[in-house]
Amino acid sequence: MSGFLVADDFGLGLRHNQVILTLLETGAIDATSVMIDGTLPPDHLARLERCRRQGAQIGLHLNLTHSFDADRAAPTIAHLLRDALRGRVPAALLADLARQAQAFQDRFGRLPDFYDGHQHVHCLPGFAAAATALPQGEATWLRVPLPRGAGGLRRNIRAGGPKTLLVASLARAARRRFRRKGWRINEDFSGFLRLDDPDSVRRWLPRLLDAASPDCVVMVHPGAQDDPAQCPGHAAAARQVEAEILAQRRKARGS
């Protein structure tokens, strides 16, 4: 078992893109979500669309906490969470989610197959309501980072650490809102890892993949260790480890 594997952060950097594209093209992963303000050369977009025609899904990775502008710092997820819990969500940030959705349509000529969020921002109070207002088609779905059942949650807490419980709590509330608004959502989720610890990633990612049911959406972050574009708190080597594990498992299935 492996579940439905979604690689986050397409657009973060050219070398990351190449890794994700290769994994998509070889069937090692099932989908990727795009940071629409990121690095998206035309040939990479063309390869994404070819993968989609062959069955892959291409979604929008809603992003408010990673800046692609060297002159503008993005808010941290801790800052956004604090404001969200106080009911002080800036209107400009909510509007930026809609802008990103429109930018995706302008770039791809269609709606995303699904929406998810960088650091799960779309599940924060206030932001979840804005996510439900994003444009959707009959099959568009919203990712809910909430493992199904106590066993799955415990496994992901062991793999990802205490933050997993916080995200799951926020996701549970967001799921109720998404359902009330009629959105399609995933029923199971996995993929929480200690992204600052490559050894932990190497130990836990195979376990999460082995435990994933066929309908489980599994979040992964493959990439290139030598890409100059990296996220704070996310070890570059951890992306390389995930890429190697995913490629090795695909090779093993094909042998």
Task: Walk me through the structure.
- Helix content is 47%, strand content 13%.
- The chain is an alpha/beta fold.
- The protein has an eight-stranded parallel sheet.
- It is globular.
- The two termini are 16 Å apart.
Give a concise summary.
The protein is of the alpha/beta class and 255 residues long. It contains nine helices and eight strands. It is globular.
Task: Please specify the SSE layout and strand pairing.
Layout: E1 4-10, H1 14-25, E2 31-34, H2 42-53, E3 57-62, H3 77-85, H4 91-108, E4 114-117, H5 127-132, E5 141-142, H6 149-160, H7 163-180, E6 184-185, E7 188-190, H8 198-211, E8 216-220, H9 236-254
Parallel strand pairs: 1-2, 1-8, 2-3, 3-4, 4-5, 5-6, 7-8
